[in-house]
## 1
Amino acid sequence: MIIAVASGKGGTGKTLVATSLALSLSDNYKIQLLDCDVEEPNANILLHLAINQSQRVYIPIPKVAEAKCTYCGKCAEVCAYNAIAVIKEKVLVFPELCHGCGACSYLCPESAITEEGREIGVVERGDSGNLELIQGKLNVGEAMAPPVIREVKKYIDPANIIIVDVPPGTSCPVIEAVKGGDFCLLVTEPTPFGLNDLSLAVEMVRKLGIPCGVVINRVGVGDKEVERYCHQEGIPILLKIPLDRNIALLYSKGISLVEGIPEWREEFLRLFQDINRIIAARWAAK
Ligand code: SF4
Ligand code: SF4
């Protein structure tokens, strides 16, 4: 089972929820937590696992043999990302824009383009007991998060329960992290900003055909509009976490919610049972 934990905006407590769920379930199940928030992977700040494996991530970028090139311009024409340009008798490659799709080398009529790897990040792995963490890290200044996320997801073992810490927002890296999931938990806060970004995230998961439920964090900080929206849209609110100084203090010290306040384990186990029920009901209805 793959549960993605996402949020339309950053800072809602997505990682707090993902790590608490992983730690609570790891008492009884084999868990893989995939930190796909590759621009800012911070699940391990709360998990404190020793990293024992590291693998660099590369994307293939074009290398042009000018001796073979006729400067026909075909490569620049097919590149959807403006990462290659032909100016008179010169082919220019802009590695930071290249998505490594391979279209230019495939379509070059002179076979003048080969590919070379460019390092864009790293995937790290660590474990303790039943809990395994796989985290992607995008190199500073890089924009190409999806290839790193794909590398992280290659570690998925379907025999385990997989929890995916998704990047914030609703852009390409988010879609890459969420797709293939059985369920998406959307973490939000009861503010106008939370509501706005939640509605965008709901639209995204609906387009992907993934069932979702909501966790409202910092209950007490704003208004009831998020709850009203969820009721109106028929989206279950599966957990509420209050605005609580103790929770904020634990987080600021790098202590997970369920380790700092063990009573919360029960809440996260109940959350998991609710997710199970929703997935089972959906399968039964098919
Ligand atoms: S498609 Fe090939 S031959 Fe044409 S300009 Fe590009 S590299 Fe040169
Ligand atoms: S590999 Fe794809 S993205 Fe990169 S330059 Fe070639 S066509 Fe453009």
## 2
Amino acid sequence: MPEGPEIRRAADRIELVLKDQIADKVQFGLAPLKKYAKPLTGSKVLKLETRGKALLTHFDSGYTIYSHNQLYGVWRVVKRDKLPKTNRQLRLAIHTQEHSALLYSASDISVWRTENIEEHPFLKRIGPDILNPHLGWRDVAERLQSKAFAGRALNSVYLDQTFLAGLGNYLRSEILFLAGVHPEQKARDLTRGQIGKLARTTLEVSQRSYALEGVTLPERQYTALKKKGVTYGKARFFVFGRASQPCRICGTKIKRTTANSRRIYTCGNCQQAPRQN
Ligand SMILES: [Zn+2]
């Protein structure tokens, strides 16, 4: 499943051809949406916003198209009207003078007045997106300490889209490792310093993975490994997918376990388990 950084990069590729462009023609595959083709035609695309796995395409006519790919949806960007050969159902097409952005197979698509978009049931439920530029580490710290999340194990919180949208399995392992906290710990048992570090690490790792195309290592460290001939797959993470290999910080063997039915990787030395009372 794609996580926030991958989703944002996919959105960037679509935004590259749509942003500030006039939608010459807009087509919907689902019958109830066809009535929106007309009011959207001729309006300009302002931006594409990601909220977890939801994509919001904002138009200057005051409309926003909400789409969620779920498991099957797939976007394609092509030269105008050069539609690929496929058996997939075309559900949304936004044509500019030069390009066509096409959404196939997705069925979770709706059109909203932009001022009402926050009332979408999915958006109401999820937390802020981890790559939202307005999200600061203090906001993350506050959410960690809030009633909804403070008493739950971090391994569960760090997959929960109501905490922060866009979190996922590799980010969970990488963030908790770099913050030096054990996945079974709860925010309410952490010190102020640990909360601050965890909150800052959450944003840093997510932003770095976005900027470095899925790499969570600092750029210099990653580049040094690449120069030694280490592949992208083996050089990109601190712990995720590195079972039995030495911790990049202390050399201890990385452990793979399961939490919330998903694999998680930890260093038993860098991330001390909570003390049982
Ligand atoms: Zn370690």
